[in-house]
Design a protein that fits this description.
With 159 residues, this protein is mainly alpha-helical. It contains six helices and two strands; from the N terminus they run αααααββα. The radius of gyration is 33 Å and the shape is elongated.
């Protein structure tokens, strides 16, 4: 490490642990954030309106809702009814699938691996593999060639 190069310091005002701030301050900054996001979307409104007019949004609104300056009651009633029907159909389909697949494990059961195979693959003795299988939390000691040579059971040390 170069001693002449200064270490980089971070401005603590920019890095905040929000959970350590008072709840009122967090809530106030949340409202400020929402207000600025609203202002940001407000600035985009003219462009979105222009694109909507270019793509026929005004004509679609006139044809659906204000044809000849009158509101079509069929459309006003039909659109919410279709929305509710689609929602009910989607929820019913999800509940059907939840009941159909509830309690079923779709994975195939795997065969257990023998302790001899574990010991062989680890390069350890069968006795060490048995200790490893019986331990809940262990520290594995390795030799210079990364082969397990022993272990320390963490549960025994903590008692």
């Amino acid at each position: 490490m170069n001693a002449s190069k200064p270490t980089r310091r971070y401005d603590s005002r920019l890095i905040r642990k929000t959970r350590q701030q008072p709840r009122l301050q967090r809530t106030a900054w949340g409202f400020v954030t929402i207000a600025f996001w609203g202002f940001y979307f407000y600035l985009w409104a003219p462009l979105i309106t222009a694109l909507s007019w270019l793509l026929g949004g005004q004509l679609a609104w006139l044809q659906l809702y204000e044809y000849k300056q009158s509101v079509d009651p069929f459309i006003v009633i039909a659109l919410p009814v279709m929305l509710v029907c689609c929602s009910v159909l989607l929820i019913a389909w999800a509940e059907y699938n939840r009941m159909r697949f509830a309690g079923k494990d779709r994975r195939n059961a795997r065969a257990d691996v023998s302790l001899e195979e574990i010991a062989h693959n680890l390069g350890a003795s069968p006795a060490l593999a048995a200790q490893l299988a019986n331990g809940k939390s262990v520290t594995l000691h390795m030799d210079d060639h990364a082969r397990p040579i022993g272990l320390t059971d963490q549960n025994i040390q903590m008692r």
